[in-house]
Amino acid sequence: MQTTYIFGHKVPDTDSVCASISLSYLKNKMGMKTEPRVLGDLNKETKFVLSYFNIPEPEFLNDVKVQIKNMNYNKEAMVEEHVSIYGTYKLLVKLGVTGLPLVNKQKKLTGYVNVKEISKYLIEGDITYLNTCYNNILETLNATEILRFDDEIEGNILAAAYKSETFINRVKLTNNDIIIVGDRYRIQEYAINSGVKLVILVNDVELGSDLYNLAKENKVNVIKVPLGTFKTANMIKLCNYVKLLNINPNPITFSVSDYRNDFIEVTNKLGHTNYPIVTRKNICLGMMRLVDVNNFERKSVILVDHNQQVQSCDGIDEASILEIIDHHNLGTIGTSRPINFRSMPVGCTCTIIYQLYQESQVEIPKNIAGIMLSAILSDTLLFKSPTVTDMDIQVAHELAKIADLNIEEYGMRMFKAASSVSGMSVAEIIHSDMKYYKNKEFNLAIGQVITLDFEEILERKDEFVKALNDMCNYDNYKISLLFVTDIIKNGSYLFYNDEAKEVIEEAYGLENVVQGVYLDKVVSRKKQMVPPLLENER
After folding, report:
1. Residue 523, domain CATH
2. Whether residue 248 sits in one domain with residue 109
3. Are both 304 and 404 inside the same structural domain?
4. Is pTM, for the whole model, over 0.90?
5. Which of 283, 244, 232, 248 is nearest to 133 (CA)?
6. Could you give the 3-state DSSP secondary structure of residue 47?
7. CB of 285 within 8 A of CB of 277?
8. pLDDT, tens digit, 9 for 90 and up, residues 282-319
């Protein structure tokens, strides 16, 4: 069963992370195989929540692009370098390919062999020399073993084409010779007495008992073949090890973690059709063909707390989206088939997930209830955000009972743990909860940080403004804002890039706005911070 990944948006907050974990637990109880993932570093608040309830942080998910491991490459497409040329040819035909990775006995890639080099060898190669093993000869020539003393057979190939007397007088045999002979007794005897490496008896000629004993005494290898002399002489060169061909010792390779799109780009550039797939230790796993690029399995995902492509995982357009659970406005993510899409106008994704638990009649464990409650308190700012609904409050109290928590006490403890910005760089503060949006005419980035000590940020005002200006100058944003939210005062302080001043005044109905301006009762990014900017097109 394929694992389905459940994750939130690129800048993880407590709702997106806790929703991923709690929904994964529910899906697994219902028989699915899922794992929660995150797309970025966790903020202080989320780390506190997971630590408090003793839940491990989800693993990081870099992307959901289609990789080689998701493609149906041929895991049988490789040939061991000691296989015969004939055996290699048969495998090429069986697999319907024009080339194969060459591997050693440990399956480590040693090269690449193709039909072109086999053809070249048959025409130009040395057909008078054999370097192979006894078994390759048996398999290639459909031979029968008579005597075997050596597993490795190497030597010069000679066919007894002369008359016996002429052959014996003209040809001096040594233990480095391989003789092809028929029923010529004297030549058989001469070869065995000379201690040749191998005697090949054609036309299934039998070796006389006296010569058999002599060959055994002299440790001469003997086989018989059903083929005639001419056919045997033509076929025997195919017994050679395939590694003797002119192979490419350093072929272009891919690993299972490489991406499908990169594979297509390389193949289009180089023009090859077959590529070995190897591990980091150069162990061959098989071969990918260009014609196989459309035969792949998409990664299965479930999205929570977002439905905009810009906020989702890289490669989301290549994934199979099974479901979306969200509480935001409809975004830009599309699917190729109908899916389960649960979107509700509530303050937190975990409020919706609570409903899913009730519908499925799955009991919520104490620690899962705790992180779901934390998500609701975080997203609704302890019920002070305008996004909060009666359902959020009702669900929060139900979860508090299961988790055995006092909402006010735990909520303030959570926000206190998350609100300190001591030791954090300006960039870390700005990007700790930054989301990105696109107006019809421009891109904007809106960050939000919750702190109970605004004075500490105000002292570094110039640094924050410079960082926001740099975002616009280098990252193609027209507007870059940071809202510093104080949940005790129930409002937010605003920092902005310099060129956004007029847009901010018009969007929020302000006059002579200055850096760090306080916006009373503005605490919700979704309902109060973002909408005026998206509606204020310039």
Report:
1. 3.10.310.20
2. yes
3. yes
4. no
5. 244
6. helix
7. yes
8. 999 999 998 888 888 899 999 999 998 889 999 999 99
